[in-house]
Design brief:
The chain is built from 12 helices and 18 strands. It has 367 residues and is of the alpha/beta class. Bound molecules: magnesium ion.
């Protein structure tokens, strides 16, 4: 099987709740997502997607993804998309860094590998573990009262894991965590995600003030060293996210006992191939994972579902169903949340069929 062409589409994904706010005064109301189709001489087409959380979250942005895909795509024509090691080596040789640029192409080639073999991606990654898996719900930054009230509403939708967007003023964040914790029921999980927004001294104040609260602390500060200082100071379970941008950071974190959980985002590490490598390392090392991406629609939610569903349950801390956060559906067959849980398709590949009436014409294509 050979790649004969690559097509690139753009789709706007507005949020049901109007906007999503996190640390540093950042917010997004319409997500700019890029969809890639990889065509082959077999007649099969694979689909991938990449959707950075605006330009200020990670070193990634939507137009950068498209510029990078335009750079890489012509160099991949003729490769066998099923040979994911060869494909990734070619992408890494052709472009240093920029993992998010490579993510949608790698994802589309996993879709093709599954379709070619007649197997779901989750089967190729280890198999569907259990019937489904639990999701978390992100709670956009707001007043302590408004954030706490949302826990009840999201619980009524079936969620039991809640991630508060903090990373602002210390006193307000302490109030947010306490107000949210007061709403918890037995078995609920609460995470306070600062998204790098606290300076180290602010983080020290917050973690001290919540040391008796049933809460996880996620990515308090900008750098790994600052996070490690906070980690060594707090008794709360600790999650690293933004600084874990590849397997080398996982190895470093393991050596330093720097985290209990990582947040594994598919595009942050360069696609499903590298995300699976990190997933397997974390399973062997006993580190649980939130499995997700920087945002996205139906295709990314399907890719998350396959990676998460094939992960042992005790290491599957949570995952995200981004397609329920946005108002636009652009693929049939995408997984749909039921009672706060999600399951990967049993169809070959990712199990999604994009709706061309929604995607429209490609922005660019290469043959
Ligand atoms: Mg996070």
């Amino acid at each position: 099987m050979k790649i004969t062409g690559i097509r690139m589409y753009q789709v706007d994904l507005p949020l049901h709740e109007g906007s999503y706010k996190w640390s540093g005064g950042n917010s997004v109301s319409v997500f700019d997502s890029t969809v890639v189709a990889v065509d082959t001489d077999s007649g099969l087409t694979g689909w991938g997607e990449v959707c950075p959380l605006g330009p200020a979250y990670l070193p990634a942005y939507a137009r950068g993804a498209r510029t990078g895909i335009a750079e890489l795509a012509p160099q991949l024509i003729g490769l066998d998309p099923r040979e994911l090691g060869v494909l990734n080596a070619r992408m890494d040789a052709a472009m240093r860094g920029h993992p998010y640029v490579k993510s949608a192409i790698d994802m589309a080639c996993w879709d093709l590998l599954g379709k070619a073999g007649g197997l779901p991606v989750a089967t190729l990654m280890g198999g569907h573990v259990g019937a489904d898996f639990a999701l978390y719900r992100a709670i956009s930054q707001d007043t302590p009262q408004a954030m706490a009230e949302r826990i009840g509403r999201y619980r009524s939708e079936g969620y039991t894991k809640f991630q508060l967007k903090v990373g602002g003023d210390a006193d307000t964040d302490i109030a947010r965590i306490h107000a949210a914790a007061a709403q918890l029921q037995p078995g609920d999980v609460l995470v306070a995600d600062a998204n790098t927004g606290w300076t180290q001294h602010v983080a020290m104040r917050v973690v001290d003030a919540v040391r008796d609260v049933n809460v996880y602390i996620e990515q308090p500060c900008m750098t790994y060293e600052q996070c490690l200082a906070v980690r060594r100071h707090t008794n709360r379970p600790f999650v690293l996210d933004e600084v874990v941008d590849g397997i080398d950071m996982v190895v470093r974190g393991l050596a330093d006992h720097a985290m209990d959980v990582i947040n594994l985002k598919i595009s942050k590490v360069g696609g499903l191939t590298k995300a699976r490598q990190i997933r397997d390392l974390c399973v062997s090392a006993g580190i649980a994972m939130t499995i997700e991406d920087t945002w996205g629609g139906d295709i990314i939610t399907a890719a998350i579902a396959h990676l998460a569903h094939s992960t042992p349950d005790e290491f599957r801390f949570s995952a995200t169903d981004f397609n329920s956060y946005v108002t636009v559906a652009f693929a049939d067959g995408a997984p749909q949340r039921k009672q706060g849980r999600l399951a990967a398709s049993r169809e070959p590949g990712l199990g999604v069929q994009p709706r061309m009436d929604v995607l429209g014409k490609p922005l660019q294509e290469w043959r």
